[in-house]
Specification:
9-stranded mixed β-sheet, 183 residues, single chain, binds coenzyme A
Length: 183
Amino acid sequence: MNTDTFALTPRLTLRLHRESDLDRLVAIHSHPGVARYLLEDPWTQEAGKAQLERRLRRSGLADPAGALALVIEREGSLIGTVSLWRTEQEPRTVEVGWTLDPEHGGKGYASEAVTTSLRIAFEHQDVHRVLAQMDARNTASARLATRVGMRQEAHHRQDYWSKGEWTDSLIFAMLADERPSQS
Ligand SMILES: CC(C)(COP(=O)(O)OP(=O)(O)OC[C@H]1O[C@@H](n2cnc3c(N)ncnc32)[C@H](O)[C@@H]1OP(=O)(O)O)[C@@H](O)C(=O)NCCC(=O)NCCS
């Protein structure tokens, strides 16, 4: 196991970001289907460099940055990302976000990675709640949140100005005492 490996799941490795991930990350995040419901525009190489720089510093929820940015690897290839970060309003609440290369969609890889990321978040004794927010049109993400056991708590009407229009957003959450028991 490499030293930057954070967790192994039945089919995947979750590890910290590396400088050498830039091209794969840009390839995934510049895909129009991936960027469609994210607040950010499809990544250029320049945007990717800035994002990667930030992610390289996100190495643990207990660190001063209070954030963990992981890549999802399948058989040695980077196929997506999953990130956790403490929110500004309440550091005992952690937000989770995810992306998957569409070429690897529909096989449950994102669910497997996100389930493990929830476990990683709740391993921190002070973490009380994990939330995920998404564009309400992002039905694949909403299904994923439901599949990993998060509850839909809200459907906000037109609360984000995103890419030239007001958009609705969904909030999903899981409390520490709602996490699935590990068997
Ligand atoms: C959101 C996103 C990660 C979902 O990807 P996904 O491939 O649907 O998710 P998974 O990898 O968990 O696969 C689940 C699908 O595979 C199917 N599947 C097949 N084998 C499976 C298995 N062994 N376990 C679980 N699901 C499996 C499921 O039925 C499900 O399909 P469905 O949603 O049509 O019912 C992806 O659409 C994405 O990256 N979107 C762009 C980025 C984004 O919007 N991020 C969210 C910001 S909040």
